[in-house]
Amino acid sequence: MVLHPVRRDATDGAARSPEARLEEAVGLAAAIDLDVVERRCVRVTRPQPSTLFGGGAVEEWAGTIAMLEPEVVVVDTDLTPIQQRNLERAWKAKVIDRTGLILEIFGERARTREGQLQVDLAHLSYQRSRLVRSWTHLERQRGGAGFMGGPGERQIELDRRQIDDRIARLKKQLEEVRRTRGLHRGARERVPYPVVALVGYTNAGKSTLFNRLTRSDVMAKDLLFATLDPTMRSIDLPHGLKAILSDTVGFISDLPTHLVAAFRATLEEVQAADLILHVRDVAHPDTEAQRADVVTVLGDLGIDAETDERVVEVLNKIDRLEPPAAEDLRRAAAARGLAPPISALTGDGVEALRLAVADRLSLGRATVGLRVDLADGRTLAWLHERGRILDRHDDDAFAHLTVALSPADLARLERQPGSAVVEERTAAD
To answer: pLDDT digit string (tens) for 297-317?
Structure first.
């Protein structure tokens, strides 16, 4: 059973309808194989501190719940611990809120050690906030001696200390993950290839596009949060370019702060990317609201999607539009110089997107004069692969080249140890 509270004082800047919010909550429940026997928007005139819903609504739904006997009642908002406890007592059923539901999905989907660590950290942070006045054993006391368990220590204090200890251990382990990711990024910079990160609202089609571009078989289903663990693959692009494509966890409205904090190590891949493809489900009725939610999360990561030139919107799922609407979208995108609309499922427009990504990564190439030791065959081969050689003449010891390089590649060349010396630099193309 899924209930979406419609609050009179609630505001949604992107005008997402209550019915759409309810359907999204049903989709979240379906993501962990829950069979939804009842779904309803419930108006909340004055939120009650004890139960959120008014007494009449609580009593009315108690009868329905007793008749349907659902395994769990999902309330699609954040409940306080006391609200959750009181609703469970009144309805004699398990109650979880939106954050709890998302955490259940993440707990089920995490496959890698990193993903599991991040989910565990988010779960514990959430559980810690539920300790106050929410557990039935609050008044239990344990005896003992010494600082760790002195006389009269309440069980809740012991529980909180145990959770804090586990959170500290998980944060230490995730810090190791963050350092390892930093080393991996450093290794990629020495290769070096630009990184293209896919971001977007959950179920926007990121993993399907990832598979299409990389010819991989990452899990891609019509489910919210089908992808949780980050995945990276190399891709070949036009102009002889290569890049690393990164698929990331999907964003969602009201993304729990516990999750944003726990997944920061993963989301650092987005912050460090050379290009960020914001994949949008253009056929979804709430596509503008979903866009706003993604822009908000990117903002939390320090990325201003409105001004950061790395962020490129990719309109996906045009196969779900009527042909005239899809064609109008293509013309509008072309007129505004935007990325071509695509269908990651059918492949329509994907090759044009591949070319657009290559052009974007090559945009603003700087022309530089380089002196490279003739013995440094690796650097010379890399320059021929990554740049456009405009001129070359050799003497007894060095190759003198004039090369057009993208800003990202030039920065990588200057960072990596080697024999290449920049002798002259001109303006970008």
So the answer is: 888 888 898 888 889 999 999
